[in-house]
Amino acid sequence: MVYISSYLLLVAAFFIGIHLTRSLLHYFSVKRSLRSIPGPNPSSILWGEEWALYHTAPGSQYVKWHREYGKIVKFRGALGHQALSIIDPRAITYILGEGAYNFPKPDGVRAWFKATLGEGILWTEGKELHERQRRLLAPAMSKQSVRNLTPLFYETSSRMAASWCKLVENSNTDQAEVEITSWAGRFALDTIIIAAFSCDFGFLSGHHQSLLAAIDGLTNNENKLSSFYMRALFWVFPDIISIGTKGEMIRLTKHELGKIASTMWRDAKIAGDIDRKDLMSLMLRAISDSGDNISEEETVAQMRTVISAGYETISALIAWVLYELAIHSEIQTHLRKEIVTSGKSELSMDELNCLPFLDGVIKETLRLHPPIIENHHQAAETINLPISEPLTGSTEPQIIIPKGTIIAIPVNVIQTDPSVYGDDAHLFRPERWLERQKEGIRHGREIFAFSEGPRACIGKTFALTELKVLVTTLLRQFQFSLSCTHDIEAFQSFVIRPRVRGEGPSSLPLVIQKI
């Protein structure tokens, strides 16, 4: 037995040695290939720049780096892995366009999506598989589908407004303080589940709180050191997301979302109602028309993805747009006037899109508060990446990206570029969009929050219409303001959320006054 144990230890040591040798060779190869690219010296030998990225204002490090080093910046992550931050327009066009399938999501990001949602469209890579999944989801997210869902958006918006009216009535005054992020999450979850399955779980009415807590708790409490360790290390060790308390939360959330989707999938299959307009029915119809043999688990993974995206991004955007309106009373008044003078209490999707100031408010919110602040990719192979102009000391408008290199595209830097938006790019000013339209100013990449190319967000029209319906419904009934006792900051969870400075999870207490 002693000899066997010694032999196993030698074998284990041998393979560990091979792994370490390969890692070191790759590290020095990447370091040599990227030596001409400027960037900061690592602030930590162990963590690289991860500590600074996690503990400073979201996106602020990228702003600082690109201001100092230019459009392509090299930085180091945990355990010395090399990464690039890129805002060069030619490089981004290539990464997201013609070279999209050579720059998949990093292994850690894919492991996260697989663990939380399953093998759906956010996990899938490769041109053929991705295009297949996108074709099956496209009918459910088409403009016509969203047109049909617009009355539902009004229904859930009116339900939340009615609840807020009761809060004001019960306050014995003409106003009440409302915790916006909680209500935004309940609204977004109610809306996406009704849209997906024609089933009302009653989150706005206070039902199914355990399910809401499971979904919200996974990504909305990132102030613990364990969350930092996971975020810093999953680029190098993707399996880290499956261990500890976080791993248990991931499995619970995946199970709860899967239970909903599986039940609704089976009910839809049994009902076989071809006239239903919910997202599940439209997707099942697309599957049937395509002749593809799609498993229940693959369908469930897609619906988990739809629910998660419809909850996370929308709830964050709702909070940020109401925050900006609350601190800019003149903008709120201007927008309310446009809404009221539109002539109808409920506008169609096309009519909503004809309100220019509303469009400006939504675009400006997306510009300054993109829910996903970093677009991450990984080089699937060593690639010559075209760039707009040669780096200092080179004559070639390209750089060599070694296989496995992590690439971050910082959305906040792109969307606050003074060369595109002017010296006031840091200010919330919706009228800039009307001015740009009047002057015929148009840049190819103005709002990058939904990405672009074949991997662009398929739910963009759904999200924008839902948000516009809610804003028009609420501004007809309420005046919003921020109490002077609250200082609001942005913090990094799965998406960028607001919170009262120093608190843990998201929080945005606003004063609502009935009009």
Automatic annotation (TrEMBL):
GO terms for molecular function: heme binding; iron ion binding; monooxygenase activity; oxidoreductase activity, acting on paired donors, with incorporation or reduction of molecular oxygen. The chain crosses the membrane at residues 6-25. It holds the Pfam family p450. This is Cytochrome P450. The keyword Heme applies. InterPro entries: Cyt_P450, Cyt_P450_CS, Cyt_P450_E_grp-IV, Cyt_P450_sf, Cytochrome_P450_monoxygenase. It comes from Marasmius oreades. It is found in: Membrane. Keywords: Heme, Iron, Membrane, Metal-binding, Monooxygenase, Oxidoreductase, Transmembrane, Transmembrane helix. GO terms for cellular component: membrane. The keyword Transmembrane applies. PROSITE patterns: CYTOCHROME_P450. Its cofactor is heme. Belongs to the cytochrome P450 family. Pathway: Secondary metabolite biosynthesis; terpenoid biosynthesis. Heme binds at C457.
